[in-house]
Amino acid sequence: MNVCDWDKNAENYLRRMVTHCGAAVPSAFPTEIFEVSWALTTLIPRVISFDDIHSFIKYFSDHLQSGNGTLGFTKAILADAGDTSRALLSQAVLQFSPDVQPLLQHFFTGTHFRSYELEGSPSFTVNCNVLLALLECPEAYGQAKVIEQTLYFLLEAWENGATVDKWNLDRGYPLMLFSDCLLRLLQKMEAQVVTFPEPTFTRERLIVVLWQILSRVLESQLPEGSWGHSPECTSYSVIAVAQYLQLPWSSEIRSALLVAANAGQNYISNGEGEDDQKIDHVWVEKVSYGSALVRKSYLLCALHAPQEQRLWSPDTTKLFTVVTATETKNMSKLLAKTPLLQANPISAFGLMLLESSHYARHLRVERNMIVAESELPKANDKYVDFIPVFWVSCNSIRGHPLSPSIIWQMCLLSQFVYQMDAYMEAKVSQASAHAIESIKARLVAVCQNTTLSRKPKRASECGEVHDTSIPTGEEEALEKMCDVLEAYTKWVLERPSVLQSPLTIQAQLAGELLDLFLAHISHIVDNLTLRNVQDYPGGAMDNTPSSLGAPYFNWVTTIGANDTSCPFASLFFSCLISKPEMNCFSTSPQARYLFQSVSRHLAIMCRQYNDYGSAERDFEENKLNSLDFPEFGRPQENNACVAFDTASKSVGLNST
After folding, report:
1. CA 357 to CA 359: how far, in whole Å?
2. Interatomic CA distance for residues 153 and 356, integer angstroms
3. Which GO terms describe its biological process (predicted)?
């Protein structure tokens, strides 16, 4: 490169290297700045003291001076933010104050740092390395806005699942770096060296991310004690676990951390003497490569990582005790009874419950986003605690495929489904027959007008239905009910992930939401009929709900299934996990058919399990249940559960 004539000597050199070095050729050589800076900042002060390496101050100062304050992975190579920040960090940990201005001038974009000045896509780990350097360089404390912007970039990337590294193939490497960033930042905040506009919120946000990272690190450890069957990859995670031991965990979680760290250290120790020259090809440039020096430094750091707990302020400590030992024990017993979670240790439940408690707190904050608390029935809201537990635990045992932002969106949706169900049961069920018909017309008008628009229209924009037969005194209550249900519709259909979906998917989602509303209303009307409410015309005199006039199969695959919200929620979920302007289940007719078929089948199962569990209560409260259909032949005097057990084979409940 950068020459006009072919260099035969260079060709001979490359041929000789390929012959003698196992056919592995790095993208560039030498890499002394990369190797020395990475090794040094990894080992200090965990393994070696400042006195041993003071001469390196001049080494990095000379290189930075010759590069006008920036460096590449070797001399005279294009400068990058990663190597520059590691060199600055090396100087900082050697108690020398480097100049961070060239780093900011060349690589800071206003929201994050680029690896190279002309880089298109940002690197998560490069921004971690930059943040580490800024936190250790006293001069950078005057750049509070830069630290804040870099942190928020990393937090947003984490919450959106965008942490896959461009420069290292192992998934544990960015987790180790990010953990180091967050822990150092917490320490600086405690010492009031670094401040943020909302310190309490920022501290809580950092700690929640630390919980999430630790959960992923622990659950990816293999039975032999390694991570990825690789000593170097194992060292990344052992270092991360050792960092977490500084925090004020419960005794159960701390014990689990010690077990994981010791198992990883044993794996490294047992394999360390077998092949000292073995290199893990986990680093990436144009090709994957390894560095014996960098590898050795990480292994040494992992083997000698301290395991002591630091002293923390009461404000920080209490965030690690938001879930008491009794709550953890009780919830763990409950979760352990489910087939999916019965094999998990109590320490895993502890982390799940800590993360879930964060979502539960925020669900309570958002509880009245759409409908005022006075409009909701005064009921036990324990579901607010259970919703995040189910999402977090299922995500955990499957290797965390869902990002925190997706978990949060589904927690919100689950809460709103509960609320909408309770609201309709409390308010819509009290409306007159004419008012209920008017509500249905309004919902149809709103949901069906999303097919040609990116946003749902209000009923007034669609040609509002005005029913003159509604009593004057009920009009205000009707308007309020319609406004609330339209607000639910707007919240769902104006989610960013929904608006980025194809118009056909948006229209389908609006249709599924409409089916959910109409199924709720149909169920309410059937319940009113069972209670002999004379106001609703048709069937009230003989207490026979209209749904019972159709075969059970027809009802359970339509109204009964839609009423569970499963078809609607499944499609909403598909919008969250799909790329913009795409839907992951619409890549072919077969994929879309199977997705809808599975969603419908799950909805039917949900309806049947729900009716099985609430059969006696529904009978006492005169609510329509699967067992009321003629196919089950439930005598009124018989126990509902016995009747359902007898009939369950016919609907496939026991065979699932």
Report:
1. 5
2. 23
3. diterpenoid biosynthetic process
Q: Please state, in angstroms and rounded to a whole number, the distance separating the CA atoms of residues 212 and 351.
A: 8
Contact (CB, 8 A) for 626 and 607: yes
Q: What is the pTM of this model?
A: 0.83
Q: Give yes or no for a contact between 452 and 537, defined as CB atoms under 8 angstroms apart.
A: no
Measure the CA–CA gap between 259 and 218, rounded to whole angstroms: 10
CATH class for the domain made up of 32-167 = mainly alpha
SS3 70: coil
DSSP string, 210-244: HHHHHHHHHHT--TTS-STT-HHHHHHHHHHHHHH
Of 360, 449, 440, 368, nearest in space to 408 by CA:
360
Task: Return phi, psi of residue 115, to 5°.
Answer: -70, -50
Q: Using an 8 Å Cβ cutoff, are 216 and 188 in contact?
A: no
Phi-psi domain of 374 (left: phi exceeds 0; alpha: psi -120 through 50; beta: other) = alpha
- Give the model confidence (pLDDT) of 230-286 as tens digits: 999 999 999 999 999 999 998 889 999 999 999 999 999 987 545 555 678 888 877
Domain ranges of the chain: 32-167, 173-273+294-300, 354-651
Q: Which contiguous run of DSSP H or E holds residue 149?
A: helix 144-159
Angle 567-568-572 from CA coordinates, rounded to 5°:
120
pLDDT digits (tens, 9 = 90+) for 573-618: 999 999 999 999 989 999 999 999 999 999 999 999 999 999 999 9
